[in-house]
Amino acid sequence: xxxxxxxxxxxxxxxxxxxxxxxxxxxxxxxxxxxxxxxxxxxxxxxxxxxxxxxxxxxxxxxxxxxxxxxxxxxxxxxxxxxxxxxxxxxxxxxxxxxxxxxxxxxxxxxxxxxxxxxxxxxxxxxxxxxxxxxxxxxxxxxxxxxxxxxxxxxxxxxxxxxxxxxxxxxxxxxxxxxxxxxxxxxxxxxxxxxxxxxxxxxxxxxxxxxxxxxxxxxxxxxxxxxxxxxxxxxxxxxxxxxxxxxxxxxxxxxxxxxxxxxxxxxxxxxxxxxxxxxxxxxxxxxxxxxxxxxxxxxxxxxxxxxxxxxxxxxxxxxxxxxxxxxxxxxxxxxxxxxxxxxxxxxxxxxxxxxxxxxxxxxxxxxxxxxxxxxxxxxxxxxxxxxxxxxxxxxxxxxxxxxxxxxxxxxxxxxxxxxxxxxxx
Length: 425
Prior knowledge:
This protein is of the alpha+beta class. The protein has 13 helices and eight strands. It folds into two domains: 56-131 and 284-393, MetI-like (MetI-like fold, Orthogonal Bundle), CATH 1.10.3720; 157-275, no CATH class.
């Protein structure tokens, strides 16, 4: 067409063809041939390796997880990209917001994996996700300062539904002692003060609840308040009669408490709320949540990519159509759903298909974020390919997985190519 001689054209194409053949055609061909051989590669194995794809439990888990990835990751990333693109279109700081959302695309998968491995750490002091989750939880259901407190020897308290209750009833004018042990000194409430023996008050039930332990052998007296012992500040005490709470109070900083005359003849209970274990947060990288957690990190990276493409498509949408819809009485939601989204359908298809191809090959995030105890549950085909080929010494099955992945990607690529050609025409 340009008048260039065939030999000259072939010479110009030769370097590209050599690279294409060496880096694409040859590896694909070799993988196909290797997938029909045994592990050592010296014997034809037929379809045994492909049969293993559907009988091996690890590969089946990887296939199931890949389906989850293909369904949810592109959908969520595209939906967030669409929302960000539409909402930032009318605000002055929209460009700055888009820059922040797109910034994770500049981070490699390796770095993102390390970041989110720390974000999902189980320890709330290290993991951001659990720090936020525990903070919200403790706002509405605070944990106790005495999770391991329990009665010592010769204590008047006996176990009762996760808490403790006095074995005998109490009387007004007779101070009650409720000694406990089991709380480390550094775990005591910061506002706790030295325990004080309660004084009797007319018409009231008084008492003390405290840490009945003094460091040093033979120093403290069991069941009595010693000078160095601290009160259980904030301990909740209930007076119970016939299974019904008739009065309740909280211990002061020195462990003393006072109950009204209604507590006369009742048993004093320290309810289970006093001994609730601290909330440790969510096991984000446990077997049940590891895949959604990793998908969340992927969406964090790729929502910006979707937003930029959708924003570019949104810039080309005719404003006359949007204004005409508003003039006809459509509200903003109807304009978005009936006009904006249909006009953006080609762009949304590009984004979804691109992300589908990308998640079929996902490897880095799963390999880095999932701990060893949960890696089997978070397994995907690309990771299983690596494990079979390099950890288990089964290059035959690894080649079969590679060919299977290729077969999964090719239809999506062909669909994308046909759609692009149709748009060009």
